[in-house]
Amino acid sequence: MGLLLFSMDSANAAEKINDAMALNGVKETRSVFLIDFTNPQKTAFYLDIIRGTHEGLVRQGVKPNMVLVFIGETVRYLSTEPDDVLAMEYGKQLDSIADTAKALKAKGVRMEVCAIANRVFEVDNATTLPEMDVVGDGFISLIGWQTQGHKLVPIF
After folding, report:
1. Over its length of 156 residues, how does the chain's per-residue pLDDT go in tens digits?
2. Which of 3, 6, 42, 81 fits a disulfide with 37 by CB distance 3.0 to 4.6 angstroms?
């Protein structure tokens, strides 16, 4: 009996946890995520969190308009042809990143990869995951999206 009451209380508590105060009167959001990680595990983890954020907004009746801008070393984890050492050590995480990119693209999320970072980290633009667009400069992209009203969500 005690376990049943605990289960019911947990279910009720979960139903009450939401973002109603922050989303009061909000019908649509416009966000641009700056993503700059130095390891594929963190990249995979946060891309999954972002997917959940998108789903949470939709579940709460808000239309998300999201753009993800990848800069720095993170671009190494966004290639269809990662270097051999990276692929051997982090194959599972790279697969997760690719799968989440597909899911996000299907939800209408725009993903941009900085060509300058690709050049610095020796990633061929042509090998960028097909769900992502290579842009000239990630910083210019961030400036542009923010100027258009997207709110910055820095993730690093």
Report:
1. 555 554 555 555 556 789 999 999 999 999 999 999 999 999 999 999 999 999 999 999 999 999 999 999 999 999 999 999 999 999 999 999 999 999 999 999 999 999 999 999 999 999 999 999 999 999 999 999 999 999 999 887
2. 42
Is the sign of the CA dihedral 9, 14, 17, 20 positive or negative?
negative
pTM above threshold 0.85: yes
**Residue type at 47 in one-letter notation:** L
Angle at 127 between CA 126 and CA 130, to 5 degrees: 90
Burial class (CB in 10 A: 0-12, 13-18, 19+), 117: buried
